[in-house]
Amino acid sequence: MDKLIEKLQKLDFTELEAKVYIALLQNPQSNGSQISKAIKASRSAVYSTLDILYKKGAIFLLPGKTKVYQAQKPEVLIDNITERYVKTANKVKEELAELEQITVGKEYWNIKGHENFILKTKELLLTAEDEVYINSNYDLNFFAEELKALTDKGVRILHFSFEKSQLKEDIPIEFYRNSGIGDFEPSIFKRMMLVVDYQKVLIASGKIGGSFIGTFTENPLLVAIVAEHIHHDIYFLKLEEKYKDILVQSDILLDTIAEKTFKEKVAYYKSKQKYE
């Protein structure tokens, strides 16, 4: 009996509620006083518990002047509890899902270390089914095997860079190079922007022989931002090739920190090339 009471407690019964319900099953058509004597509990506590069980639908009143109770059939009781729990659980699941979407969205995973960057990039590339966009000055020979596997199964790969392609193997990728800032030797500072099937994105940067950090996510907003960035780099390159002119003239610059930083980097690379 004690184990049965414990099981009913797991179904949102208190210990006294479980004892009263079981007593009514064993002694149908009983009043509060009779139940009180059967389970050796105070009459006030039993009457209060009977009201709670009645509201729960676990017992019902029999017609008449005196309050005589009957226990709900166990199969009906358990079916009602199950239905109530399922409805509540489904509602909570929906509300939690809405809360997660609003406050969290898709997860972000941080990548630290050069080896972890290589492994994650390879893993991500091999998930591609349709298209891959790359903006990177990283040596793609590290991923030659994965890139070849993708092109062999018909995946389209677009690669944009400001540096010459270092890919040794003859892999049919679409390579776009903007040499407008100079024809420099590959930099020791590397970065990678990678979009796979417009569903996943990886961003990473670091120094060869030094630290490497990055982020991977399936967040649709960041996927769209990086994909647009790579597309605009290629659009910009094609426009300059079409009109045979530098499109960004001094009169349209915005005088921002970003522009000044980029200008400093270009000056650094030019001076580095001059003295090497």
TrEMBL record:
* Stored Pfam families: TrmB
List the Gene3D superfamilies: Winged helix-like DNA-binding domain superfamily/Winged helix DNA-binding domain
**What InterPro entries has UniProt attached to this entry?**
TrmB-like, Tscrpt_reg_TrmB_N, WH-like_DNA-bd_sf, WH_DNA-bd_sf
Q: Where is the Transcription regulator TrmB N-terminal domain?
A: 8-75
Q: What is this protein called?
A: Transcription regulator TrmB N-terminal domain-containing protein
What superkingdom heads the lineage?
Bacteria
Q: Tell me the SUPFAM superfamilies matching this sequence.
A: Winged helix' DNA-binding domain (SSF46785)
Alphabetized PANTHER family for the sequence: HTH-TYPE TRANSCRIPTIONAL REGULATOR TRMBL2
